[in-house]
Amino acid sequence: MSGNTFGVAFRVTTWGESHGRAVGCVVDSPPAGLELKEKDIQKELDRRKPGGRLSTKRRESDAVEILSGVFEGFTTGTPVSMLIWNKDARPEAYEPIKDLLRPGHADYTYLAKFGFRDWRGGGRSSARETVARVAAGAIAKKLLSLFGVEIVGFTREIAGVKCSIDVRELELSEVYKLAESNAVRCPDAEVAKVMEEKIVEAMGAGDSVGGVVEVIVRNAPAGIGEPVFDKLDARLAYAVMGVPAVKGVEIGSGFSAARKRGSENNDPIVLKDGKIGFEKNDAGGILGGISNGDDIVVRACVKPTPSVSIPQKTVNVREMRETEIVVKGRHDPCIVPRAVPVIEAMVALTVVDFMVLQGLIPRSLLQKRF
Amino acid sequence: MSGNTFGVAFRVTTWGESHGRAVGCVVDSPPAGLELKEKDIQKELDRRKPGGRLSTKRRESDAVEILSGVFEGFTTGTPVSMLIWNKDARPEAYEPIKDLLRPGHADYTYLAKFGFRDWRGGGRSSARETVARVAAGAIAKKLLSLFGVEIVGFTREIAGVKCSIDVRELELSEVYKLAESNAVRCPDAEVAKVMEEKIVEAMGAGDSVGGVVEVIVRNAPAGIGEPVFDKLDARLAYAVMGVPAVKGVEIGSGFSAARKRGSENNDPIVLKDGKIGFEKNDAGGILGGISNGDDIVVRACVKPTPSVSIPQKTVNVREMRETEIVVKGRHDPCIVPRAVPVIEAMVALTVVDFMVLQGLIPRSLLQKRF
Amino acid sequence: MSGNTFGVAFRVTTWGESHGRAVGCVVDSPPAGLELKEKDIQKELDRRKPGGRLSTKRRESDAVEILSGVFEGFTTGTPVSMLIWNKDARPEAYEPIKDLLRPGHADYTYLAKFGFRDWRGGGRSSARETVARVAAGAIAKKLLSLFGVEIVGFTREIAGVKCSIDVRELELSEVYKLAESNAVRCPDAEVAKVMEEKIVEAMGAGDSVGGVVEVIVRNAPAGIGEPVFDKLDARLAYAVMGVPAVKGVEIGSGFSAARKRGSENNDPIVLKDGKIGFEKNDAGGILGGISNGDDIVVRACVKPTPSVSIPQKTVNVREMRETEIVVKGRHDPCIVPRAVPVIEAMVALTVVDFMVLQGLIPRSLLQKRF
Amino acid sequence: MSGNTFGVAFRVTTWGESHGRAVGCVVDSPPAGLELKEKDIQKELDRRKPGGRLSTKRRESDAVEILSGVFEGFTTGTPVSMLIWNKDARPEAYEPIKDLLRPGHADYTYLAKFGFRDWRGGGRSSARETVARVAAGAIAKKLLSLFGVEIVGFTREIAGVKCSIDVRELELSEVYKLAESNAVRCPDAEVAKVMEEKIVEAMGAGDSVGGVVEVIVRNAPAGIGEPVFDKLDARLAYAVMGVPAVKGVEIGSGFSAARKRGSENNDPIVLKDGKIGFEKNDAGGILGGISNGDDIVVRACVKPTPSVSIPQKTVNVREMRETEIVVKGRHDPCIVPRAVPVIEAMVALTVVDFMVLQGLIPRSLLQKRF
To answer: Which of A18, A154, C205, D281 is most buried, judged by most C-beta within 10 A?
Structure first.
């Protein structure tokens, strides 16, 4: 009865429904002395916000309000509560289909679990709840940046069109700039165009497409992760698989490792400037569930948006009879680009949690005044 | 400092090292009144046990002892402690390489985390710790079977050789029988032979191969899973990614969903005998992080065993100089078949935990006597 | 870094500071189908609200807003977020003493922990945060009442004046009515008058007094509590000792048991209407950490309010020199009566959590509609 | 279904029954590099072991075996599993009363919870399970001692006879020596004699007596504790109230604070050697749930042993009829002295957990070797 809290030592609890009054979260708690303003959060929320021709027509300013835990511009070490009012909720749009189960959505499963369902745009099961994750993740990212840890995500694939960029050779700030410069968040501008075309094509057919998001964590210290169950990769898989529409997660060479030999998949260990390093990074920065200091590489498969206007078979649960459904209204024909900041946020929350557990983030970022 | 406990309401804590005195676990706690004998556990341990020409030469009887929580043949509702003595530990075999970091292993990361390392076969990072997971999973499976829930795993792929069997059309008992009838645990006997050849070929080259394990959960009730973070798929990903050598996890159509359209990936909803059902199962039994009553389908990529006798670059950490390593000794050239019962166990522990949280498993399986 | 969540299966996370924008909580989550209105919450908040001549002059309407988790008047099974705006915050009142450590308060310890301190009325350490506890507790109490469980608290002692009422002989509704009918929440009207006099007397001297609160849980089922660590009494002690100003907790005969013999302290076991019962209740309804079906009896010692206008020795932390402090302003000369609903709330949250863990509260209170 | 784990960042999970094969625990996990031998544990177990004329006649060597987590004499940072075989179990002694509920014991409540009961000496509800707590606490104490933190407990009161020693004026090593020098663990030898007489007198009458244990933590750093729920005092209350037979817990001035005025109960704040200090310690070392650097003072009321040979009313649950019971056999007429090391252990486990959470104990006590 309590699956809405993420993290062990750095925790976020989220709340809110798609067409309720607001969504929000409580972050318990950033260390004291972190400079934090609403614009630090807003910056990330704006990346997730709908907009542009490839996105839902729902218009949300997604303006965040910090309600607690910050005093004189700094965190106090107590819970940071954040709230985002829902401004453009239109529950009435869902009334005509409130008894129909939308295929690929959680309508049936929420009903099976609770015997009662907020049918307004999926209620809690809507990806709108990810606003709160991004808000919490913004704090995690800001905190990590103080320790030199960078986290950048981008679109690796959409509708079968792949981007083959080798991130290991680039500055992450460059990858970020490239990815943020187009509507699909693909760092290869040429590939991005083809992806956009694929999305437009699917939209025209009343259909949707999926893809793959990749997130890189650079400069995470070696040694984070808590085997045997709370391994870094295990918790990343948990964090990312819990993002709406994600159906698969892989680390480093991932599923391709199934087709490699050991001698090929192992990363040779070498000295770099007198420190342990790796010639390549098939491990994706994690060995035995603990970071090895190299880039942490996480990829997630995002399924095509289940809301499509092509008629689909379904059941009317009030009358318990088979029927058809056409899901109109406001939704993204491809959720992949907007999933990027969400998955980044979940990765950031995971990494910061383990850094706290490893004792690498102090309870106060300030010098004590006595 | 405490990543060795799995589960929320049905918990297992494991302990033990590869070449220490013993490995074991505490299961806190099965409901009272479950009939439980050591042979119920032994049966599953025997499936994981090494043996045969494709496996490590370490010989362990893996005989389990139940030390608590069972009285007059029934669980009492208190913790069940289980212990398996290590009988064939040979720590001395690792002495010559104790200062060398084995590529693909956790040698470096444990050192980075703890500054100190049990070099005897990887210590805690060895897959030997999975004995304890299988022991705990055996209780979970027995308990689930009382509620009609079946869990069966098998090898879907090894060294690029795939088994294309459609499990949805078969009894799981049949899948089990087929899979257990060969050394690679592949339910297609013809394909199994080719897989075996691939393994033998890699062995001959002093190398190793990887593959994909699939686990099916049948008859799990609709409604289990705890969004938004403790979704069923998120926790399954966590459970399975934490198994040694796993580098990727997917649910249902998984990564292939990235290349599908929404109209194609959605499962049409229909009535079957008056109940909600699905025409196909690309969702892998989970929608919005909650089970939908269909087969839960989990696949995991298992990397090739990192221990290979082909020389590899590495570093001697005592002298901090680059060198080469040849990992001899007792290890599996392909870990996939032995990973099957381990992943089954983790899936079972996940499912039973959520069934308890959903209120579907009572605290006592007995009628009260007063 | 995360001590602001209470509960295992029925969880509340609170946030907010005394003179910040608001206080609030997230309850994760009541079962689906609980009828819930803001007035259900408001009723309890009003009991905790300041007012009357014996209380702080701070004026807060403490109007609660439910922001999520309720749809069409019923809980949906998802998190209930509640918010109470701070209306009468006057942080400027604390500016003159912001560098002085108030004796008996948490000023020094927050500084020692975080190196930084919200000096506005104690910030997070203020008893104002208990508003959120009472809001969450109101849901717990409403839910428990559906299962017949009643929870009533009252003042057992103030400034050495004791109320000797034997609650076991009374209806709890009667105890409630008696206690709520006077300013000190003592069910004995005569004793209440003396208590009031003692408070007025201390006020006149610029001083404060303490006392003892007692909370009774009636009709809790036998069998709740999770030994060996999460015993019912252990978790009650945790819940209640965490309330501001509480310095001691006891169950049943409590500290007086230290002076009894076993034959005297044991409760004789008898049959009542064919069921197991007890002739008396020195156990306070708990044996071996599990409820026995009798009244659960919890008492808490509440220390005298540390804010007194009598000059006290302290230290100016900016200048690190000894000085004196006079704490003026708005505070209660005796916190005991207002602690009653807070302690009730904590007891209710504890009991409901254990009832969920015992499988006694279903995930949905509704009949499924399919 | 999982109340057998204590702690957040430094966790212990215990298992075992009074007359089962063994009792034990898993500590997850001490930091790497702690020198640890079985004799470090044994020393504490020997303090808890029965013996002498005032104690049960059960004879247990309570020899501990460390099964994991220690390599070459140092902890590795992985779980430490410890086991103590039950040598002198005599379950047959309980057979004649297996259908009778022992007053003051958990017989009825376990039956109510689980519908099934290990009647052999109370099974899991027996104080025998505290062996495992003491074993885990021994590690906590050894670890704390490296950071200068001392923990000493003693008997403050038995059968109404009080020891009025002022511990604040003494070295804790002196208190320890005095307390350990007599059978009742009272640091005042004269008072100890009277206590012993009271116990012998009760024994003679087939009865039992209770008392009060006090535990002091000295040199704990200011700043530990996690408000608002996981306050240091709240978690201490939880830890200690969960010890068998404890019915009340208080901190510092405790229940006597109810009768004091604020000006009297507040501890004046002063400078001592340029640091913040307190003129007295009514707070018991804790303000706002966070340590203030002064002695942490915890007192627990221990009820008289419920096993008495005086006939008591009870019920035969098989026949559901009222009857009488005489509890013979091996038990302590006063559990107070043997509760001392158990309560110390629980306090130590609590303090070490908070020190880890506060970032004061590193993951490795060794210098990294690379």
So the answer is: A154
Tell me if B33 and D116 make a contact (CB, 8 A cut-off). yes
H and E: helices and strands count for chain B: 8, 18
Which residues from B are below 8 Å from D364, CB to CB? Answer: 113-116
| pLDDT tens digit sequence for A125-146 | 999 999 999 999 999 999 999 9
Is B342 in a helix, a strand, or coil?
helix
Residue from C263, C270, C325 to probe the interface with D (highest D Cβ count within 10 Å)? C263
Q: Does B321 touch chain D (CB under 8 A)?
A: no
**Smallest Cα–Cα separation from A153: which of A347, A353, A352?**
A347
Q: What are phi and psi of C315, to 5 degrees?
A: -125, 140
A315 near D CB under 8 A: no
Residue D84 amino acid letter: I
3-class DSSP assignment, residue A156: strand
CB-based contact (8 Å) between A341 and chain B?
A: no
Q: Which residues of C touch D110 (CB under 8 A)?
A: 288, 290
The answer to whether A127 touches A191, Cβ cutoff 8 Å, is no
Q: Are strands C5-6 and C11-16 parallel, antiparallel or unpaired?
A: antiparallel
Instruction: Considering only the beta carbons, identify the residue of B9, B32, B118 that sits closest to D2.
Output: B9
- Model confidence at A367, pLDDT cuts 50, 70, 90, reads low
Return the number of CB contacts < 8 Å for A and C. 222
Q: Which of A305, A351, A62, A335 is nearest to A185 (CA)?
A: A335
Contact partners for chain D, using 3 or more CB pairs closer than 8 A, are A, B, C
Q: Is D348 within 8 Å of D17 (Cβ atoms)?
A: no
Record the tokens describing residue A246, joined without a space: 């994600």
Q: Give D-chain residues touching C203 at CB under 8 angstroms.
A: none
Say yes or no for a CB contact (<8 Å) between A223 and D363: yes
Contact A358 D357 (CB under 8 A): no
Contact D351, D149 (CB under 8 A): yes
Q: Looking at chain C, which residue has its C-alpha nearest residue D283?
A: C104
Write out chain D residues lying below 8 Å of B3, CB-based. Answer: 28
Residue C290: name the closest of C238, C360, C221 by CA: C221
Place B369 in a pLDDT band, splitting at 50, 70 and 90: very low
CA–CA dist B39, B58 (Å, integer): 22
pLDDT (tens, 9 = 90+) of chain D, 370 residues, equals 689 999 999 999 999 999 999 999 999 999 999 999 999 999 999 999 877 777 777 788 899 999 999 999 999 999 999 999 999 878 888 888 999 999 999 999 999 999 988 988 889 999 999 999 999 999 999 999 999 999 999 999 999 999 999 999 899 999 999 999 999 999 999 999 999 999 999 999 999 999 999 999 999 999 999 999 999 999 999 999 999 999 999 999 999 999 999 999 999 999 999 999 999 999 999 999 999 999 999 999 999 999 999 999 999 999 999 999 998 877 889 999 999 999 999 999 999 999 999 999 999 998 654 4
- Architecture of the C5-357 domain: 4-Layer Sandwich (3.60)
Using the beta-carbon criterion (under 8 Å), do B269 and A108 form an inter-chain contact?
Answer: yes
Task: List the domain boundaries for chain B.
Answer: 5-357
Pairing of strands B74-75, B11-16: unpaired
- Whether residues B363 and C359 touch (CB distance < 8 A) is answered with yes
Secondary structure (3-state) at B107 = helix
CB contact (8 A) between residue B362 and residue C363: no
Residue showing tokens 């339910």: B187
Shortest CA gap C369–chain D (Å): 30
pLDDT tens-digit profile of D235-289?
999 999 999 999 999 999 999 999 999 999 999 999 999 999 999 999 999 999 9
Reported as type and span, the H/E element at residue A111 is helix A107-114
CB pairs under 8 A between B and C: 19
